[in-house]
Amino acid sequence: xxxxxxxxxxxxxxxxxxxxxxxxxxxxxxxxxxxxxxxxxxxxxxxxxxxxxxxxxxxxxxxxxxxxxxxxxxxxxxxxxxxxxxxxxxxxxxxxxxxxxxxxxxxxxxxxxxxxxxxxxxxxxxxxxxxxxxxxxxxxxxxxxxxxxxxxxxxxxxxxxxxxxxxxxxxxxxxxxxxxxxxxxxxxxxxxxxxxxxxxxxxxxxxxxxxxxxxxxxxxxxxxxxxxxxxxxxxxxxxxxxxxxxxxxxxxxxxxxxxxxxxxxxxxxxxxxxxxxxxxxxxxxxxxxxxxxxxxxxxxxxxxxxxxxxxxxxxxxxxxxxxxxxxxx
Length: 329
Ligand SMILES: [Zn+2]
Ligand SMILES: [Zn+2]
Fold this sequence. Notes:
The protein is an all-beta fold. The protein contains 1 helix and 18 strands. The strands form 5 sheets. Strands 13-14-12-11-15-16-18-17 form an 8-stranded mixed β-sheet, with no helix packed on it. A 3-stranded antiparallel β-sheet has the order 3-4-5, with no helix packed on it. A 3-stranded antiparallel β-sheet has the order 8-9-10, with no helix packed on it.
């Protein structure tokens, strides 16, 4: 594959970006999404760059998630599977693993036990779906009804043979719609004991897409090994589009000065927020409990209340490791 080098001026810095041959732009305008771009000490995710005949037209430097975490060296979560609430682990309900997923790994996986999120390939394409999600509140119940499609764009699935992702993960599934209705408690309670997270959906993001736990069907770190699209999602066998982390297309917060917005709901009714805690502190597993949450005052249905909630992190398990409340199914 031929690699072209494109030089850009971004945030007053000269950058060069390598573009593979299947992203050629002869006589056409194309928007390239760079999953991650480092400018000085700051990493920007999902930077959209519009090019025509190799000439730069526009650059959308909207920094969706601004991080000081080294995205080039994220610890691979393989083996961090627990059978009780354990920080930095997933407590899965099922430990029989087997099935599809990525069949090869590439240079983004390092033999020092880390992976480089900035050079990991992503599935090509940017498809906009007729996403539907309504959230109704009635009699102490929050009802989420939708069609399982996200409002953020997805890649092209099944993965095409000309896609660089094809060399690693030939996801053969097609994104399919389905009617979804989930009834969650409006005021979730901490259960007397935490519980395991199943395979399949463990929550729904406010863009309408599901989130699953951090494991792929082989019980490995799905974010490290599987190839997702530019918004971090992909479909499973039944066509359910899902994320194994909070989509960086959904989290559009660039300043690290305030608590992240609500990104979705876990199936126990607690909210999951983005990467920043109180006063915009970027969170790691060390700031969160065994299930990947903590309690402090948050905005909840228009009120400020002290309530447990989960957070996204750049490190495994990315979303939630166990349920703190009782899941609805
Ligand atoms: Zn998956
Ligand atoms: Zn918080």
